[in-house]
Design brief:
about 170 residues; alpha+beta; 3-stranded antiparallel beta sheet; 5 helices; 6 strands
């Protein structure tokens, strides 16, 4: 699974970064930063929306009846809230949309990748020593499909921002 999305054009961005520093255009840099973030926001919002609406199906109950989940945190909402945007306008200029593991509980770190692959395997009610393991299935690949759908628009928008900044610097 592609866990982050980067829209980068290293040569153009590095050259533009040098010219921005030489021109001392702090206002131009802030404007570019804001516009690149705005170009990435629809992707982040769509990824969050896709995660919140992701259909996760179980393999069905066995003969033993289950009980209430010992976990009260909503899985989809927790994962959606961890999707972030990072924009840099220094030497490593670009935008990144990623899943921030620091915003996830430790036991959920691998879950976005498993859901993107289509199968989430976990112990029954979180109990690894007793009970058993179960599989849950999701429509794969939720992350990759959403990113693929947004990539052309984002690349066009970032190219437009870079052209506007170049024109202002000339």
């Amino acid at each position: 699974m592609t866990r982050d999305v980067r829209i980068l054009n290293t040569g153009s961005l590095l050259e533009l970064s040098r010219r921005l520093r030489a021109a001392g255009g702090e206002n131009i840099r802030q404007s570019m930063h804001r516009r690149i973030r705005r170009a990435a926001e629809p992707l982040r919002d769509d990824l969050q929306s896709t995660m919140r609406g992701l259909d996760i199906r179980s393999q069905g109950r066995r003969t033993r009846p289950g009980g209430p989940s010992p976990n009260t945190r909503p899985l989809r909402e927790t994962l959606a809230a961890a999707i972030r945007i990072s924009v840099r306008t220094g030497n490593a200029m670009g935008a990144t949309v990623w899943i921030d593991k620091g915003r996830l509980p430790r036991d959920l770190w691998g879950v976005p990748g498993q859901l993107n692959d289509g199968r989430l395997r976990h112990p029954t009610f979180g109990n690894k020593s007793r009970g058993g393991w179960v599989n849950q299935y999701a429509s794969p690949p939720w992350w990759d499909t959403t990113v693929r759908r947004h990539r052309p628009r984002m690349e066009q928008e970032v190219a437009r921002v870079l052209d506007d900044v170049r024109r202002r610097l000339e």
